Automatic annotation (TrEMBL):
It comes from the Eukaryota. PROSITE patterns: UMUC. One of its GO terms (biological process) is translesion synthesis. It holds the Pfam family IMS. Residues 443-473, 515-538, 576-608 are annotated as: Disordered. This is UmuC domain-containing protein.
Length: 608
DNA sequence: CAGGGACTCT
DNA sequence: AGAGTCC
């Protein structure tokens, strides 16, 4: 049956399932920060430009690189070697984040999984696209686009060469579109896996792309003089490897896996072994909403409790804003801190986390809200966690505190999903009001009277810290109305109590009503003006997709999104709403690292 | 560094 | 849950 591989001239579906089935494109935006600045101020384009954070030039345009500016150079040195260097402060990441999101959103255009890696890198798995394209293409005489790492000696029997050539054309198309629509030049790497796509990407730059075939993976990998060049091998792993005299990727290729198993888990050992030969089967995972939202603040030293409390309070304020933007209700909170430790530089964080009562947050007109009392509760929880970390009878010295919401209300499937749907909805109240001909106060108070599910609602006494339930305690949906102070009447979110008591049929009814009301543009807003955000377009999209108000994730640029075909917008939304693997999608989206563009280059040292 | 997150292991 | 790693 192996003969079927011989039939490589005409690619078949079985071929694709063979050796190198996937086609991955890695796209890297050239000197990202600098390009953002140059797009903002075109006059900078012709001058050497450096982006400054603190006292270092984190990146620069190619004009500046010509005169010797390296990434992460001290400002003083940079100015020495390039006196007319223009510097722009790049400490506020907001605009970079926005541009990054625009690009990410644009990449959705190809209807393939896109994984964001930091601010300026994206993987896109175009395997399926290629599949379709291959059917409608004359396979004879296909030519790749861009650079080729190495000319193949023989055609790979699995047909991957053809697929990758098409992928290279696709990469070119993608880069062109990014340039046409957003003005960014990019580099791309095309390969049959993420590892090679990423590593080959910077081979030709800027504004170029490179294709590598699987058969050259091993040799290509051996050109890296440090194992550190391999993504996922960080400083610790490098240290361990070096301690075993494994320095270069070539060293790694030659060491027996059993040797590695003495220092790494069996899993890791195998992974390392695969990676060093250019093998990697990790999937491109569609980037979705973050699984945690957090902030940290570092400083010289804090040694007094009250000061700590202030730090946390400030962090909490900011964090709550982010949570509101995100739109999901947090159910778990983590406190992190770093103790002053002369020994180990940085790192060495410690953390404590706990569940938080669902009554702390409410959904008010689609916006997450929290009362003053709720914030007090959170501060109490935070300081309780803090006490777990610090022995207050002894002096302490902190250099960092952090706060993060680490879990959010679960999405549910099937029938219960509609509950979730309504829970977060902003206009249920309005709809019901329409139905009931406006009796706001009465109706919402009525619900509160409905059988308070007794025990579960007793959280006011101690309630903030949910004792981690041994048996998955029923989510505390039933918040006691009574405890919600003012604005109880005005808040539509209160309805959730009542809604949960409706049977599924009734829920559908409510949902339907709501949709109708929207279609007629009646949707009155129970909540006062939201923040800026284009309200009208939001509503339009809600209608189109069936009215879920948690439309696109916050990292998605609205303008770009709106520019996409309606059909695609809906597809995207359903993807975001029902992330492929049932769980919430992963990967940071709020990732504002100072990822140094193209930093992988520093590990790329051609063999002597 | 510094600030955010994700994944993995225990 | 919490720590360690990695980017």
């Amino acid at each position: 049956m192996d003969d079927r591989n011989m039939d490589s001239s005409s690619s078949t579906i079985t071929d694709v399932a063979t050796k190198h089935p996937k086609s991955i494109i890695h796209i890297d935006i050239d000197c990202f920060y600098a390009q953002v600045e140059m797009l903002r101020k075109p006059e900078l384009r012709s001058e050497p430009l450096g982006i400054q954070q603190k006292n270092i030039v984190v990146t620069s345009n190619y004009e500046a690189r010509k005169c010797g500016i390296k990434k992460c150079m001290l400002v003083s040195e940079a100015l020495k070697s390039c006196p007319n260097l223009k510097l722009v402060n790049g400490e506020d990441l907001h605009d970079y984040r926005a541009s990054s999101n625009k690009i990410f959103t644009l990449l959705q255009h190809w209807k393939s999984p896109v994984e964001k890696l930091g601010m300026d890198e994206n993987f896109i798995d175009v395997t399926n696209l290629i599949q379709e394209k291959i059917k409608s293409t004359n396979l004879s005489n296909i030519k790749f686009t861009g650079h080729l790492y190495r000319e193949p000696e023989t055609e790979c029997p699995c047909g991957c060469h053809t697929r990758l050539k098409i992928a290279s054309q696709l990469a070119s198309e993608i880069r062109q579109k990014i340039f046409d629509e957003l003005g960014f030049t990019t580099c791309a790497g095309i390969a049959h896996n993420k590892l090679l796509a990423k590593l080959i990407c910077p081979l030709h730059k800027p504004n170029e792309q490179t294709l590598i075939y699987p058969e050259h993976g091993e040799e290509f990998m051996s050109t890296f003089q440090s194992v550190r060049a391999i993504p996922s091998i960080g400083s610790k792993t490098t240290e361990t490897l070096i301690s075993q005299n494994i320095i270069s990727v070539s060293d790694l290729q030659q060491v027996a896996v059993d040797v590695l198993k003495k220092h790494f888990s069996s899993d890791m050992a195998v992974r390392l072994k695969n990676l060093c030969f250019g093998e990697d089967n990790t999937p491109v995972k569609q980037t979705g909403r973050p699984q945690s939202i957090g902030l940290e603040d570092s400083f010289k030293t804090v040694s007094v409790r009250s000061e700590v409390e202030e730090k946390f309070s400030a962090l909490l304020q900011r964090l709550l804003m982010l949570v509101r933007e995100d739109g999901r209700i947090p159910v778990s909170l983590r406190v992190t801190l770093r103790k002053k430790d002369v020994k180990r530089l940085s790192s060495h964080r410690e953390s404590r986390q706990c569940q938080i009562s669902s009554s702390i947050f409410t959904v008010n007109g689609g916006v997450i809200t929290i009362t003053e009392a709720g914030q007090q509760k959170l501060m109490t929880i935070i300081m309780r966690l803090f006490n777990k970390l610090i022995d207050l009878s002894k002096p302490f010295h902190l250099t960092l505190v952090g706060l993060a919401f680490t879990k959010f209300q679960e999405r549910m499937t099937g029938r219960s999903s509609i509950v979730n749907y309504l829970m977060n909805d902003l206009s249920v109240q309005s709809v019901l009001n329409i139905q009931n001909d406006c009796d706001t106060s009465a109706s919402s108070m009525d619900y509160s009277a409905v059988s308070p599910s007794s025990s579960t609602t007793t959280d006011l006494s101690d309630g903030e810290v949910e004792p981690s339930p041994k048996k998955p305690k029923k989510v505390n949906w039933i918040a006691k109305r009574r405890c919600l102070s003012r604005e109880d009447v005005a808040s539509p979110s209160k309805l959730k109590v009542g809604e949960l008591r409706l049977n599924s049929k009734e829920l559908e009814k409510v949902s339907e009503l709501r949709l109708n009301s929207r279609d007629r543009s009646l949707t009155p807003r129970a909540s006062p003006a939201k923040d800026n955000m284009s309200d009208t377009s939001d509503n339009m999209k809600d209608i189109a997709e069936g009215g879920n108000c948690d439309e696109c994730p916050s990292y998605v640029d609205k303008d770009v999104f709106n520019a996409l075909p309606e059909e695609m917008q809906q597809e995207l939304k359903s993807m975001w709403k029902n992330p492929a693997n049932s769980e919430l999608p992963r990967t940071s989206t709020r990732n504002m690292n100072k990822s140094k563009p193209n930093s992988i280059l520093k590990y790329f040292v051609p063999q002597k």
